[in-house]
Amino acid sequence: MSKRKPSAPKPPAPALVSASNFKRNASIGLFLLGALLYANTLFFDYAVDDAIVIYDNEFTCKGTAGFGGLLKYDTFRGFFKVEGKEKLVSGGRYRPLTPLMYATEVQLFAPKKRDAAGQPVKDKNGDTVYDPNEGGKLNAVKFVGHLVNMLLYGLTGVLLFWFLLKILSPDGKPTGAAGFGPFVALAAALLFVVHPVHSEVVANVKGRDEILSLLGSLAALYLSLKAFYEGKKGLSVAAAIVFFLALLSKENAITFVAIVPLTYYFFTKANTGKIIVQTLPFLAAAAVFIAIRIAVLGLDFGGEPPRELMNNPFLKLVGNQYVDFSFAEKTATNFFTLGKYLLLLVFPHPLSHDYYPRAIPIRSFGDWQVILAVLAHLALLVFALLGLRKRDPVSYGILFYLLTLSIASNFVFPIGTNMNERFLYMPSIGFAMVVATMLYRLTDKTGRPKPAVLIGGIAVLLAFSVKTFTRNFAWKNNFTLFTTDIKTVPNSAKLRNATGGELVAQSLKPENAARKTEMLNEAVGHLNEAMKIHPGYKNPLLILGNAYNYLQQYEASIQAYEQALKLDPEYTEAKNNLAITCRQAGQFFGEKQGDIHKAFTYLNRAFELDPNDYETLRLLGVANGVSGNGQKAVEFFTKALEKEPNNAAAYYNLASAYYNIGQPDKTAELMAKAKEINPNIEAEMRGGK
Q1: Is a pLDDT exceeding 80 seen at residue 478?
Q2: What's the burial of 271, exposed, middle or buried (CB within 10 Å: 0-12/13-18/19+)?
Q3: What value does the mean pLDDT take over residues 645-655?
Q4: In sequence order, which ranges of 512-553 are alpha helices (DSSP H)?
Q5: How far apart are CA 318 and CA 534, in angstroms?
Q6: Architecture of domain 613-689
Q7: Where do you find CATH 1.25.40.10 in the chain?
Q8: CA 197 to CA 345: how far, in whole Å?
Q9: Which CATH superfamily is domain 492-610 in?
Q10: What is the distance, to the nearest Å, from the Cα of residue 428 to the centroid of all Cα atoms in its chain?
Q11: If we measure between CA atoms, which residue out of 616, 677, 182 comes closest to residue 440?
Q12: What pLDDT, on a 0 to 100 scale, did the predictor assign at position 91?
């Protein structure tokens, strides 16, 4: 009886396509997917911080003539326009690369700003000023801004795929479409591209700093790996240059100084010496960047946190004074936000662009959510450390996530806010890699996904794609964004203030005339809520005063401005608006209510606040004339004429005042001058014009 021969082992499934075709086809698909997911943003307006770096930045609005200022100063200096105000944000910001791009786009596509006479506006240095906001929905510079973001994001998905193929395939050489490396590279890149948490970065033009920071960091590491495998030293130099550009886009690229040696340790056979050599170009680029940053901003990297809640979320109100969180409160609150980051990666709903105080409430270690967040991160860290010796890709993904998020965690230094979804942009690569690796471990022995895994994965990708596309619509403009996100974070003082301000602005547009009162009252509600959250917040009081003014609730308006001035006696906008409102209140009570006593009260207050305002002087002349005080009427009309000596109406008013006190010669002289300026002045004044 013959012995039965053992069966041969089952061969692995052949590659579905060749390595080159797989890489090309996947790259094209990723680019198109990443770009098309954000195609609905192309005709969106500017939103949120676009004002800081684009349309309200004096350097950017000068086009290429503003390059010097963008390179010379803090990134926020062009917005604040006054030296020192940019220091309100702890540590300062030096991110000139994207503002240089915006300035170039403004130069190429924005129309010149023009004055009332239609002449081009020049700044104090004689440079032409451009207007990125001109043009409405067909605004070319806005379209280009969104288009560039969209294309760069698609490119980032491709580069991430190439990078992952490089590190996950043996010796950096790509294989076909089957196997661990191709599966994880494609799955992770797909998850990254469709993740809804990236909508803030791509849909907001200002988010380009995040896009270029990651794109440059990935490109530099990819070039470094190619240099290592191919022995081309020139690629290492190129890696250093590209990494330097990434740093000029946003400082969080500095975390790649740790990611580079980590990558070489996990995915190459390089010894410690070679790892150091491959890391040196990144260290050199970082050193040059830091030296430039110090030269521009000084040595204040984190600095003393400001004492304003909107720039320092770790303050709490005790009595009438803001004091620092305790160490335990700050630590617990930071862990709570880390827990929220993890939750948003797994379940990205609801989303918000704003997490300012008190969107994240003060937390303690007695809070179960804090305890859960601490345990989750301890578990992640332990798992990552245990996988170090095995060089487990899951361990690498966890460490990538923790290292790149560390700079925005508020544990290293204060960043001025509790959290932001854009801070997850770079760390989400680690998350995507962990998920993709775990999914591969659920495949069958040939490396092909099990039906349940494949269907589940596709369902998640589709759900995330739909969420991303629909979330983008919130970024259409500030009004849509603020009124959408306030439902998600009603306890943010900053967002309450922003929503109130935008409602006031929108209420003044002709198309909203029918809803003006409704919108103003809604704004009042948001602004009062902002003050409840942050009683020391002066800006809501300014906008509240404006809202009450437009509602013709002048006494409430004056009270809001006065309260703002109690918080800041040098609040220029509140001073100016208080004077205007007192003047308008005087006119209202005099002309509409017939209360001459109240009219004088408010007009005299307006005169005290601004004795050089023509309209206030004119109204005081009218009020005194109506009251029978002819000499006082002459006095105020004379002062008004001094302010506007070419105003025919000013001559007419003064002539009328002299007529009322019985000086016909003076009356005739002044009336002649009025007619000389405007022959129809009598008819216009008698007609109420």
Answers
A1: yes
A2: exposed
A3: 95
A4: 516-533, 538-550
A5: 12
A6: Alpha Horseshoe (1.25)
A7: 492-610, 613-689
A8: 7
A9: Tetratricopeptide repeat domain (1.25.40.10)
A10: 19
A11: 182
A12: 67
